[in-house]
Design goal:
- This protein is 44% helix and 20% strand.
- With 240 residues, the protein is of the alpha+beta class.
- It has two domains: 72 residues, Nuclear Transport Factor 2, Chain: A, CATH 3.10.450; 139 residues, Glutaredoxin (3-Layer(aba) Sandwich).
- It has a five-stranded mixed sheet, sandwiched between helices. It has a four-stranded antiparallel sheet with strand order 1-2-3-4.
- A hairpin with a 5-residue loop joins β3 and β4.
- α5 runs antiparallel to α6.
- The N terminus is likely disordered.
Length: 240
Amino acid sequence: MKKVIKIAAVSLLGLTFSVAHADENAIRQALGKAMPSVTVGAVKPSEISGLYEVTVGGNIVYVSDDGKYLIQGHLVDVAARTDLTEEKLGGARKQALEKLGQDKMIVFKPKTSKYTVSIFTDIDCGYCRKLHSEIDQYMAEGITVQYLFFPRAGKGSDSYHKAVSVWCADDRKAALTAAKKGDTPPAKTCVNPVDEHMQLAEDFEVKGTPMIVTEKGNIFPGYLPAKQLAEALADEQGKK
């Protein structure tokens, strides 16, 4: 009798895996057909039966098991008062930034680095300029700053062309610093990651600049003074 039960349990488990795999394939095929430009990452069952959690870039959406319906928004555990989506978004953002790679960012690194943040910046944004004018203070706090461009005026704007010119400069860090002070960088073009930065900003639902993303993928919207940011990062890492 125990043997029969064991065989039945194994068979049921295999059926569950088969159904889950079939659902994943259905979702990938449906999304690929409806949105061919979208790169689908992980697909896995969500906390709600029949609804799958799908990673798209640095974002998370929810899709029905037949791939017919897609829901954008946050899944909240009402009883626990927990935003389940936000907890997972940090990991998705972290993976997206790692996939982009540091070689596609402009990096200011202190001699001794305690923390690393990725900052979406607009050359013509006032608070972005304020933050960069204090870059030595961030370095003093041991904060490595990885810049990504998010010209809020959009592709083809003056801010966009400045971002491309800075990237294509012989000395990117010096060119960025000069541009942040109000100098117009000499016009240059080359293969650059600015469009990738902007797509990532869209995936992260960046609304304004600067937007700071921590090593764990958490977000601090807006400008933060160096000491305040260092304290927040210490809290995040449990060092305080």
